[in-house]
Amino acid sequence: xxxxxxxxxxxxxxxxxxxxxxxxxxxxxxxxxxxxxxxxxxxxxxxxxxxxxxxxxxxxxxxxxxxxxxxxxxxxxxxxxxxxxxxxxxxxxxxxxxxxxxxxxxxxxxxxxxxxxxxxxxxxxxxxxxxx
Length: 132
Description:
By secondary structure, the chain is mainly α.
């Protein structure tokens, strides 16, 4: 059983699997990323362009799926979790906006946002479950 100070999501209640507005807004950031990926593929419709978009798609998918997995454990209704998700959303918007030129002059922005999201999310999750 989790205490009231726990940042974990409650288990076993009627609405324990309910998706909140913050999680839906987080998903919208990745809808934007997918549209950026599709526009990038259309702009570079070649084998090389397809490989580049596929590589970025895997990166975007990894960030989204692992963050979604973590938010299945953490309670996004708690203020520290919301702040963490909003930080990831800002980084996700930077990542998404860098997609069209990720293999030219915005590569460092894409890589930086990606690393920040992967490492930051993991460190934040470890902090959130400390003592559990």
